[in-house]
């Protein structure tokens, strides 16, 4: 009888573990037609990364979130405007949860909605190197069908075209009007939006500019940040993916970045002139609010 009971307990535990494993692999909420499968690859596993070179990979691909988060993550309800200004606005990054409700905006950013509204409109792609120079204009439909795919691990920044920003404001205004922006302002600044869609493993290598917020609408985006006086070691024409796999593991302890992964429902704030690089873990739809 005891053996039977213990067998039942073990089986129950196995079923629970399997279920927890499945839950952990699920994309957050509804994938909007962007995240269709959950094949997870570990960022630091060389054998798995080799597969990134295969042209056959598609948007089903996902990178595992390594999980480290050393940036303050706060619920928006506990951060008054004064608290934000005093503690973060000019000092350090912060991730704020539940400060915006972009349910409606998110539904307008599903793959099918965007294709219906903007499929034939041209979007401007920029090379994903630190000093982006090359620009290519393609219809959104062509970008989604032909260009949106996982980043090859060995691609150079200059060979990688990224859809982020350069949005034709007249054409995209109707969508941007539906975006609920983060409710914190800096004195004497106004807002400008940059909207993007990019494949897993893609991202923008280290650079800096004025302050702003970044929100992921679908997918997950990992952020790496350094203060203005701590310029990171990076090659301006290597991708964030290659920095993460080749440089990051050998960083001396004192040179570790601030880092975290943001998911839908979270907004990351980066202060003025902070170095930052991004890595999309999934096919991601995202929007930045620049304060200038
Ligand atoms: O979201 C991204 O991948 C790029 C964001 C970025 O670098 C920025 O907002 O300046």
| Parts with pLDDT < 50 across at least 5 consecutive residues | 7-28, 53-60
- Assigned CATH class: Mainly Beta
Tally of separate helices: 8
Bin the strand percentage.
Answer: 25-35%
DSSP summary, beta strand count: 14
Number of domains: 1
Distance between the termini: 72 Å
CATH topology grouping: Jelly Rolls
Cα Rg = 20 Å
Largest sheet properties: 9 strands, mixed
Annotated CATH homologous superfamily: Cupin
Form type: globular
Order of helices and strands: HEHEEHEHHEEHEHEEEHEEEE
CATH architectural group: Sandwich
- Structural class determined from secondary elements: alpha+beta
Bound molecules: 2-oxoglutaric acid
Which strand order does the major sheet show? 3-4-12-9-14-8-7-5-6
How would you state the average pLDDT, rounded?
A: 82
What is the helix fraction of residues, given as a range? 25-40%
Pfam families: Cupin_8
GO molecular function, one term: cis-regulatory region sequence-specific DNA binding
Keywords: Signal
Organism: Gasterosteus aculeatus aculeatus (three-spined stickleback)
Question: What does the model show?
Answer:
- This protein is of the alpha+beta class and 292 residues long.
- The protein is 26% helix and 25% strand.
- It has a nine-stranded mixed sheet. The chain has a three-stranded antiparallel sheet with strand order 11-10-13, with no helix packed on it. A two-stranded parallel sheet has the order 1-2.
- Strand 3 (72-75), helix 3 and strand 4 (94-97) form a beta-alpha-beta unit.
- The longest helix has 24 residues, at 2-25.
- It is globular, with a radius of gyration of 20 Å.
- The chain binds 2-oxoglutaric acid.
């Amino acid at each position: 009888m005891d053996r039977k009971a213990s067998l039942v307990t073990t089986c129950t535990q196995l079923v629970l573990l399997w279920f927890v494993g499945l839950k952990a692999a699920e994309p957050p909420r509804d994938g909007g037609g962007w995240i269709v499968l959950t094949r997870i690859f570990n960022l630091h596993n060389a054998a798995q990364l080799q597969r990134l070179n295969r042209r056959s990979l598609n948007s089903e691909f996902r990178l595992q979130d390594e999980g480290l988060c050393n940036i303050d993550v706060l619920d928006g309800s506990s951060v008054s405007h004064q608290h934000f200004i005093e503690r973060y606005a000019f000092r350090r990054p912060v991730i704020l949860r539940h400060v915006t409700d972009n349910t409606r905006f998110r539904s307008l950013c599903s793959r099918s909605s965007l294709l219906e509204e903007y499929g034939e409109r041209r979007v401007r792609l920029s090379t994903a190197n630190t000093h982006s120079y090359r620009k290519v204009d393609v219809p959104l439909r062509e970008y989604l069908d032909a260009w949106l795919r996982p980043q090859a691990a060995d691609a150079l920044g200059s060979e990688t075209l990224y859809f982020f920003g350069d949005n034709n404001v007249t054409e995209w205004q109707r969508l941007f009007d539906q975006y609920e922006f983060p409710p914190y302002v800096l004195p004497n600044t106004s807002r400008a939006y940059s909207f993007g869609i990019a494949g897993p493993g893609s991202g923008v290598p280290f650079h800096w500019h004025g302050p702003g917020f970044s929100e992921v609408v679908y997918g997950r985006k990992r952020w790496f940040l350094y203060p203005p006086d701590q310029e990171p070691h990076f090659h301006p024409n290597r991708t964030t993916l290659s920095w993460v796999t080749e440089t990051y593991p050998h960083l001396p302890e004192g040179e570790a970045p601030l880092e975290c992964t943001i998911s839908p429902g979270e907004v990351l704030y980066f202060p003025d002139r902070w170095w930052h690089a991004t890595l999309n873990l999934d096919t991601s739809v995202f929007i930045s609010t620049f304060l200038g």
